[in-house]
Amino acid sequence: MNPNTVTHGRAGTSAIDAKGLVKRFKTGRTFIEVLKGVDFDARHGEMTMVMGPSGSGKSTLVAALSGLLKPDEGRVDALDVDDLWDHSAGRIDKFRLDNCGFIFQGFNLFPAMNATQQVMTVLKYQGVPKDEARRRAVAALEEVGLGARLNQRPDSLSGGEKQRIAIARALAKDPALLFADEPTSALDGENGQVVIRLLRRAATEHGAAVICVTHDPRLEAWADRVIHIEDGRILDDQRRTPDPNATLGSH
Ligand SMILES: Nc1ncnc2c1ncn2[C@@H]1O[C@H](COP(=O)(O)OP(=O)(O)OP(=O)(O)O)[C@@H](O)[C@H]1O
After folding, report:
1. Do 197 and 212 contact (CB within 8 A), yes or no?
2. Beta strands in the chain (DSSP E)
3. Could you give the ipTM of this predicted complex?
4. Is 59 a pocket residue for ligand 1 (Cβ < 6 Å)?
C-alpha cells in the first residue's frame, strides 16, 4: 500500500447521502428534467457502480454529488459537510480539492507535463510542499505500475498508461471520495482490468467511497453495489459481494 495512505472513514459508514435531487436543463423554450428526485448514498470502503442507458442522468448525478453542478432541488451531505450546495462556491471548491478525486474517460492530462509533473501539480494546488509532492507523486505512479515512465509525456504513452496517470493523480491526493466516469471505456481488456482493480483497491485499502459510472456490465464483478438509473430515476439498487480476482478479458 502507498505509505501516504490514510484510511478514510470506517468501512461501511456513510460518505455521501443525497436526498431528492432534481436537475433540469433548459432546451429551447422547454426544460427537461434529467434527475427526477434521486436519493443516493455511498459508503466508505465500497465501490458503487452507477449504470444505465445513455442520457439517463448518470453524469449529471455524479456532478451533483461531487460539487460540480448545482441541483435545482435536494441536498447532498458529504463527509463532514452538511448540505454541500448551501455553501459558498469557494467552500465547495475547497471541499472538492481536499476530498474528491476524479477519473474521466478523456484522461484530462496536460500535454507539456511529464507523468510526475501531472501528479505533482494537483498536490501543489493543495499546498503540499514541492519535495513532498514529488515523493508522493512518484509513490502513486509506482503504485499504478508506472515507475518506469516517470519522465514521459502523454504523447509517448499508451491509452492505458495515460489512464493510469489519471488514476495516480487522483489517488495521490488520497481522496475520501473517488468519482470515475466510464474509466475503462477507452481501454482494452487488459488495461481495463488494471484500472478497475486500482479503483477496487482505493475502496478496500484506502477506505475511499468509489462511485463509478459505467456502461460495461462486466465491471459489476468488482462492485459492492450496483445502482441502475433510467430516465432520471433509480430503478434498481442491489448489493453484491465483489470478486477482487475477477477477470475482464478482452473486448
Ligand atoms: N448542460 C446541459 N444542457 C442541456 N442538457 C444537458 C446538459 N447536460 C446534460 N444534458 C442532458 O441531460 C441528459 C442526461 O445527461 P447525462 O450526461 O447525465 O447522461 P448519462 O446517463 O451520463 O449519459 P451517457 O451515458 O451518454 O454519458 C441528456 O439528455 C443530456 O443531453
Report:
1. no
2. 14-27, 30-43, 47-51, 73-78, 100-104, 177-181, 209-213, 225-230, 233-239
3. 0.96
4. yes
Mutation probe of ligand 1 site: the residue of 30, 34, 40, 50 with most atoms within 8 A of C-beta: 34
The domains found in the chain, sorted by start residue, are: 14-239 (3.40.50.300)
Distance CA 83, CA 74 (A): 9
pTM: 0.89
| CB of 54 sitting under 6 A from ligand 1 | yes
Interval 85-118: pLDDT, tens: 999 999 999 999 899 999 887 667 888 999 999 9
Interior angle at CA 162, CA 159 and CA 165, nearest 5: 155
- Ligand 1 centroid distance, CA of 240 (Å): 28
